[in-house]
Amino acid sequence: MPESGACEASASNGETSTAKGARAAAPSSAGGAVRRTSLLVTFILGGLTATPPLAMDMYLPALPQVTGALGAPAATVQLTLTTCLAGMALGQLVVGPMSDRWGRRRPLLIGLAVYVLATALCALAPTVEFLVAFRLAQGLAGAAGIVIARAVVRDLYDGVAMARFFSTLMLISGVAPIVAPLIGGQILRVTDWRGVFVVLTVVGALLAVLVWARLPETLDPADRHQGGGREALRSMRGLLADRVFAGYMLTGGFAFAALFAYISASPFVVQEIYGASPQTFSLLFGLNSVGLVIVGQINGKVLVGRVSLDAVLATGLGVVLLAAVGLLLMAAGVFGEVGLVPVAAALFVLMSAMGVTMPNTQTLALLRTKRAAGSASALLGTTSFLVGAVASPLVGVAGEDTAVPMAVVQLVAALVAVGCFVGMCRPWSRRSGVEGSGVEGAES
Fold first, then answer.
1. 340/332 Cα distance (integer angstroms)
2. Hey, is 210 helix, strand or coil?
3. Radius of gyration (Cα) for the chain, nearest Å?
4. How far apart are the first and last CA of the chain?
């Protein structure tokens, strides 16, 4: 259940020694051994958050090969992407509550083992129907890494430290979409589409070994839920009944929808409408991802601890909204014929602003709860995936000759995100920001 009053202190008397060691890695004054552990834990959690872009984007260059090799229609092969995404969304609702009951390590290790098996079976799939089924299993199991990584961060950090750590994770998860298609393309130079899944299998196996050997249990037994499915459902109902938590959850979900609209539509908009080459599109996509990463690092290293999290989030949402308005005006021809440069600049601004909106919505939402961090993480992740999946097909409703649908989806998503933040989170009515080095309480 969400806890009211002041946010919890970052340490408790009941912590296990391994959790204390992992948490102690956060201060910069830690000793050498602790600092090495901190870097390794950061690498492991970053690898877990990079699972979705690796599983999705490394496979993208191989889609034409799959269509020819399995003799399947392109629409059916596209289902291999849809089912993987759906699995990652729904799997979080199962794994998150499990981790609140049994701890983080056991569900994570089981999920990684199933992920490795499902990915290996994808490499061996004899028909597209088997590939669709194996991709669904891959997504369901891969959800364990996404949801538990966020829950582990909540176990180890609080307030300022949590916001900074989420920004650090964005450095890893932001780079993954850039390099994944490039890696996939290079793999296809030496092997076929099955080789992509072989590489993903090896990466998953190495990550599982690192988790087993080096990631400690971070949820103390005293903080675990003892009930079964009913307790998990009660926990989720309690979280959703917390207006402030639900507000941050929806704010982050609709902000992600604006991002997903860009991911879905930008290849068509940039190349077909504005005439950019595939190489130019790849360069612009990479630059936008770099912008997101840089702003995320500014958020974690400069803003957090000096400015209220809500104030930074409000600024980020305002920038996203302004960029979406600019894109719609350009797409609708208000400024006459505009070239690629102004549109690319607006997309860069929108993407970069996600570097403060995404980590801060996650931090502010997770600050509402401690004992149900797994369930909270599951709700945050599932909402973002599902809202993004709904927004994705809407960007092409008006055909292939206009970028207006993309801009409209982004503007509507930004407006809803701002509305949820203002109407549900109501930051001005409670003391919930980061002022100096402390975090003050969430709403009662």
1. 14
2. helix
3. 21
4. 13
Is this structure's pTM higher than 0.85?
A: no
Quote the CA–CA distance of 444 and 378 in Å, as a whole number: 23
- Asked if residues 88 and 148 have their Cβ atoms less than 8 Å apart, the reply is no
Question: From CA 295, how far away is CA 290, in angstroms rounded?
Answer: 9
pLDDT tens digits along 239-264: 999 999 999 999 999 998 998 888 77
Residue 327, classed as helix, strand or coil, is: helix
- SS3 sequence, 84-142? HHHHHHHHHHHHHHHHHHHCCHHHHHHHHHHHHHHHHHHHHCCCHHHHHHHHHHHHHHH
Q: What are the backbone dihedrals phi and psi of residue 439, each rounded to the nearest 5 degrees, phi first?
A: -115, 130
The one-letter amino acid at 100 = D
Distance of alpha carbon 50 from alpha carbon 267, whole angstroms: 22
pLDDT tens-digit series, residues 260-295: 888 777 777 887 788 888 778 778 878 888 898 899
How many angstroms separate the Cα of 61 from the Cα of each of 65, 178, 287?
Answer: 8, 13, 20
